[in-house]
Design goal:
The radius of gyration is 37 Å and the shape is elongated. Helix content is 35%, strand content 9%. The termini are far apart. The protein is of the alpha/beta class. Helix 5 crosses helix 7 and helix 7 packs across helix 9. This is Core-2/I-branching beta-1,6-N-acetylglucosaminyltransferase family protein. It comes from Melia azedarach.
Length: 386
């Protein structure tokens, strides 16, 4: 029986012919071509990935570039970055950013570091400080117990020597017009900048025409021992009090809650934060306490009396003479600078201090002309004690 050769039909090829073809095909060259092709593809892919990485990394970095706000929180694991005062007062934060940052309040009452409470002396000025030499004498020898902040017109930049206590103490400012809301905005700006220093506990508002009536130690003791903050706040039923009230301020401010007081105040840290964080009463006073109302005499006294009347002494620490009449107080020049003049100021009236009756009511006085500087300097050791 004849033997038949079975050829696999699934390949459709003759084994002998396949063997011959494979035996004579130049396999090494084919492998080299394949290898080179993979190398070229790999290099191309690597170059594409490298370019894409550079491109997308640049696009990713740009939006998250450090901002002014972020700079406040660099290295948050280091306590010193939270408690040290700003090294440069001329920051680039706008008011919204500044007020937001300034109102950070620790909820734990005990400080985890040695904190020496300071008084922030805040000068709201038109330009220069002509009485600066007197203040230099006042501050001398008390470093670490005070901070200074100066808010002049933005077109003015004080040229103080590097040895001056006022050197580098100017803050970013905006124009402040008498009787306008911009005056209160400037005061809030001063408070907010001072709040950035966690050691500032008391905040005193002063003008370029203010002087201290006592030495630093007496003023520090008086303020630090007081149970109350010093802001005038009283109900004036006449045309210059309730007569300035606008019914549009209701319901946030009722007529019975309307208060009046001196622009020149001293507040503690709790009240300073309350002033800076306010968004309820601010628009009411901005829109309905226009010139003729004199918003700086009503905004803070009314708001704080509504919120925290138990923290107010309801009087100012700054003596001013309104006896001559008019919209502005009296200004004093060289002829007025006499010992008897100041002794009358210092014991001019009675007031309450920590609920006790006293004649020690004023720590500061205004308004003094630039020409009064020399006689003030000559008289200060005998009368003011510095």
């Amino acid at each position: 029986m004849q033997t038949r050769l079975v050829v696999p039909i699934e390949d459709g090829k003759d084994h002998a012919s396949t063997f011959r073809a494979n035996h004579h095909r130049p396999m090494p060259m084919r492998l080299i071509q394949i290898f080179l092709m993979f190398v070229v593809v790999g290099l191309s892919f690597s170059l594409i990935c490298l370019y894409a990485t550079k491109f997308f990394s640049v696009r990713t970095i740009v939006p998250v570039a450090p901002t002014i706000i972020h700079a406040c929180f660099e290295d948050v694991n280091n306590l010193q970055n939270w408690i040290k005062p700003p090294s440069d007062l001329m920051h680039k934060m706008n008011d919204t950013e500044l007020f937001w940052r300034a109102t950070f309040v620790p909820r734990v009452k005990e400080y985890p570091f040695k904190r020496v409470p300071k008084i922030a002396f805040m000068f709201l000025t038109k330009g220069p400080l002509p009485l600066a030499p007197l203040w230099e004498k006042f501050f001398k020898g008390h470093k670490g117990l005070y901070s200074i902040y100066v808010h002049p017109h933005p077109a003015y930049f004080g040229n103080y020597s590097s040895s001056s206590v006022f050197y580098g103490r100017q803050i970013p400012s905006k124009p402040a017009e008498w009787g306008e809301m911009s005056m209160c905005e400037a005061e809030r700006r001063l408070l907010a900048n001072a709040l950035l220093d966690i050691s500032n506990e008391w905040f005193v508002l002063l003008s370029e025409s203010c002087i201290p009536l006592h030495n630093f130690s007496i003023i520090y003791y008086y303020i630090s021992r007081s149970r109350y903050s010093f802001m005038g706040s009283y109900d004036d039923p006449g045309p210059f009090g309730r007569g300035r009230y606008d019914p549009n301020m209701a319901p946030e401010v009722a007529l019975s809650q309307w208060r009046k007081g001196s622009q020149w105040f001293e507040v503690n840290r709790v009240l300073a934060v309350k002033i800076v964080e306010d968004v309820v009463y601010y628009p009411k006073f901005r829109d309905f306490c226009k010139p003729g109302c004199y918003v700086d005499e009503h905004y803070f006294p009314t708001m704080l009396t509504i919120h925290m009347p138990h923290l107010l002494a309801n009087r100012t620490l700054t003596w001013t003479d309104w006896s001559r009449g008019g919209a502005h107080p009296a200004t004093f020049g060289p002829a007025d600078i006499k010992e008897e003049f100041f002794r009358k100021i210092i014991a001019s009236e009675q007031c309450l201090y920590n609920n006790q009756l006293t004649t020690f009511c004023y720590l500061f006085a205004r308004k003094f002309a630039p020409s009064a500087l020399d006689p003030l300097l000559g008289l200060s050791p005998r009368v003011f004690g510095f």
